[in-house]
Amino acid sequence: MTNYGLVIDQERCIGCQACAVSCKQENNVPMGQFWNRVLTEGGDKIDTPSGGYPEDGGSGSLDMEYQPTACQHCENAPCVKVCPVNATYTRDDGIVEIDYDKCIGCRYCMAACPYNARVFNWDEPEQMPEEGTGDVAARPQGVVEKCTFCSHRVDEGLDPACVVNCPADARIFGDLDDEGSTVSKYINEYETDQLLEDRGTDPKTHYISGEMSPGRPQTSDKMESELDDVSPWSDGTEDVPSEAGGSDSSGSGGSHHSIEGDADPHVPAVGSGGDD
Ligand code: SF4
Ligand code: SF4
């Protein structure tokens, strides 16, 4: 059975917040709310590094990493268990959703979620621009909302907006129960962690740290069909540049390649915000 999950390569993440912004746009997330946040791991304040600045010609020891975080779509989701009206539920494909018509705003789920992934609409949600941006209807005042893995896009065979719009290829989405999927290969190939594993929630977001992956190979499996539409190289009639998009910072030779080593270039998802 399909069981969707996400891999985030923290070694590739550059903290640009494109995932957070594209999530807000795609899902009409209200002003002041974020479903997808990018945390800084470093100094004691946001966006500050740990370590020391270079002195006397030394190299210094500045260090800063980023940890994008959103709903982890836990296999064993405490938010689902505590919802008294079954407004929070897990879809057959593993995505944890909220039925906003059923939600009574009790916020038990917010208390139960160890990832601080949910937000509550205390006031009438404010959009900017007023009519909103994405295709997803705004949620009303008095309900809890959160990341849906862009289930409306997934249902259309598309990747979540944060995956498509990550310029660093740090996010890969796919079916965890399919051994041949890109996410499964990455989880098998690289050392990955889940957040707060000791809570027993079994999050479906896995983080690579320590060793940088080669980047999203032609994006995840489902996105390849989408790329066929926009790639100038997809029909094989034009030369394939040795370095596509210029977003590879891995030092792995400058070309993105699949985990199986095929030579297909990664093509940035041009105009991906408006393709659906
Ligand atoms: S869009 Fe990609 S690189 Fe930018 S903060 Fe999000 S995960 Fe990191
Ligand atoms: S991260 Fe929080 S909101 Fe998302 S499934 Fe897990 S417990 Fe529920």
From TrEMBL:
What parts of the sequence cross the membrane? none
Judging by the UniProt lineage, the source's domain of life is Archaea
**Coiled-coil stretches:** none
Q: Which Pfam families match?
A: Fer4_11, Fer4_2
**Which molecular function terms from Gene Ontology are attached?**
4 iron, 4 sulfur cluster binding; metal ion binding; oxidoreductase activity
Q: Ranges for the 4Fe-4S ferredoxin-type domain? A: 4-34, 62-93, 94-123
| UniProt-recorded name of the protein | 4Fe-4S ferredoxin
Source organism of the structure = Haloarcula taiwanensis
NCBIfam families under this entry? Answer: DsrO
Q: What keywords appear on the UniProt entry?
A: 4Fe-4S, Iron, Iron-sulfur, Metal-binding
**Ranges where the record places region Disordered:** 194-276
Q: Where is the composition biased (Basic and acidic residues)?
A: 196-205
